[in-house]
Design a protein that fits this description.
Alpha-Beta Plaits, Helix-turn-helix domain-containing protein, 20 helices, alpha/beta, 4 domains, Udp-n-acetylmuramoylalanyl-d-glutamate--2,6- Diaminopimelate Ligase, Chain: A, domain 1, five-stranded mixed β-sheet, Beta-Lactamase, PucR_C-HTH_sf
């Protein structure tokens, strides 16, 4: 759609146009992130959100966006220097309000980018539905999820109250008013029934009259539609129209839930875990405290018998399931896929947080729904978000060992430290033939098995023979055939490790 229609849909609460050297009819095709620490990944027609760079630090990114023929660049702090750079680069410049979170803006802008009619009416998305509901009810509409985050809203020339303004900015409304809604049972009613709820005006709080309805899939709450009264009273059919609108909106929210985690949040987690973004910046985007403890949990889907497409579908379903559980545990949780694994960052933890029960619950649920095996490794809870990489590396070590030779569904390093260390030594031996004893590699399967059982039995021939179901003299004969000095403890150690690797 055109930049003009994107700006109309988003409205002044979020962004303000600074310059548009090519006019407002340029096409916007996608929303991308520009990070000063990464190579620019911008294409023609993109709206580029510049995070992590303010003031003159944003100049190279604006020029790079211009060379790529981006439609527009969004920054948090504009200036005459940035305006001139955008004009020289031939790219529109938008200034994002200081209160707006980048992830919130990215999500809303992506929702707007959809098919339009010749006269610019937005079709087929939540913003279009919000606009239609506004037309039918005569009010000002917001569609929210179950966490009260605004997903879409209608355009309006009427005066909006403080609650709507703060909601669109992604911030919480006035606490006295929200407390009253809780005390009146408004939230419980919206979650539990399809009944349209009427909320009276509160002039002392700057809150206008509203009606609201819950959005449901069966008994499952999906969100809420709020309609604020504007300069004129709501239409006589407003409540009936709102009830129908909730039923029409439900499939859209179901589809949105089934989509992968937004790329912005995925990129945030990847940038934090690889050290490309500092903890304070990430914490500011997700509303977490960087000074509080955090932990990383890593999940992997097992069961390689399924074909590739089926495996990928199961992994996407597993990631969605993990996201729901993680968000329920911590609203600021981040979930991302990488290298066939699903990573979960859990910030704002109590110092003695117990994550094993949560992880076991996720694994059990995933196994039941996906009909396949899932393994998970829980990294240690680190003291601050800055140390999230330490937790991730620890969890990866455990999961690597679990994939090689640990028959466990959930584990921590403290649970299986010896197994992890041995597993890592065996992997080293596997990858480096020059540090192996060739005499052990040359043993036939029968002798190799007999020697390993003997070594595991600490040299007790009778115990080893019993495990092998042979006579002790048979085992003694086999051991004599092995060209190794089994009286040497170092020889025994190397042989035992190599045999375990086999």
């Amino acid at each position: 759609m055109s930049l003009r229609h994107l700006l109309i849909a988003l409205g002044d609460p979020l962004v303000e146009l600074q310059v548009a050297p090519n006019g407002l009819e340029v096409d916007v095709r996608d929303v991308v992130i520009m990070d000063p620490d990464d190579p620019p990944d911008v294409a023609a027609g993109d709206l580029a959100l510049v995070i992590g760079a303010r003031g003159r630090a944003a100049l190279p990114l604006i020029r790079a966006a211009g060379r790529a023929k981006a439609a527009a660049v969004a920054v948090k702090e504009s200036s005459s220097a940035l305006d001139q750079a955008a004009i020289d680069a031939g790219v529109a410049l938008l200034e994002v309000r200081p209160e707006v979170r980048w992830g919130h803006l990215e999500s809303l802008a992506k929702s707007v980018l959809t098919t339009t009619t010749d006269d610019g009416e937005i079709l087929g998305d939540l913003f279009a539905l919000a606009q239609t509901i506004a037309t039918l009810t005569g009010g000002i509409v917001s569609i929210e999820d179950t966490a009260s985050r605004v997903l879409a809203y209608s355009r309006s020339s009427d005066e909006v109250d403080e609650l709507r303004r703060l909601s669109i900015l992604g911030r919480q409304g006035p606490e006295p008013y929200l407390k009253m809604l809780r005390e009146w049972g408004v939230y419980n009613l919206l979650r539990s029934s399809e009944e349209v709820v009427r909320i009276d005006e509160r002039p002392e709080l700057g809150i206008r009259r509203r009606i609201a309805v819950g959005i449901h899939a069966g008994s499952q709450p999906l969100g809420t539609i709020w309609v604020q009264e504007g300069d004129q009273p709501l239409s006589g059919q407003a409540e009936r129209a709102l009830l129908g609108a909730a039923r029409v909106t439900a499939p859209h929210l179901i589809q949105q839930r089934n989509q992968p985690t937004s790329r912005f949040r995925e990129n945030l987690l990847a940038a934090l875990l690889t050290g490309r973004m500092d903890a304070a910046t990430v914490a500011g985007q997700i509303g977490a405290d960087p000074k509080k403890p955090a932990a990383v949990v890593v999940f992997a889907l097992r069961g390689g018998d399924a074909d590739r497409s089926e495996h990928e579908l199961r992994r996407a379903e597993m990631t969605g399931l993990i996201s729901v559980h993680a968000a329920a545990y911590r609203r600021s949780a981040l979930v991302s896929e990488s290298g066939g694994r699903t990573y979960v960052l859990l910030p704002d933890l109590a110092p003695n947080a117990q994550l094993l029960n949560l992880t076991r619950e996720i694994v059990t649920t995933a196994r039941r729904h996906l009909h396949t095996s899932v393994q998970a490794a829980v990294g240690s809870t680190v003291s601050t978000l800055d140390d999230a990489q330490v937790s991730r590396q620890e969890a990866e070590r455990v999961l690597d060992a679990m994939a090689r030779d640990l028959d466990a569904e959930v584990a921590t390093l403290a649970d299986v430290r010896s197994q992890v260390l041995v597993s890592e030594i065996l992997a080293l031996l596997q990858d480096n033939p020059r540090i192996r004893d060739p005499r052990v590699d040359a043993l036939d399967p029968e002798l190799a098995k007999s020697l390993l059982v003997y070594l595991d039995a600490l040299g007790d021939v009778r115990a080893a023979a019993e495990r092998l179901h042979v006579h002790p003299n048979t085992l003694r004969y086999r051991l004599k055939r092995i060209d190794l000095d089994l009286d040497d403890p170092l020889v025994r150690l190397i042989a035992q490790l190599q045999l375990r690797m086999r």
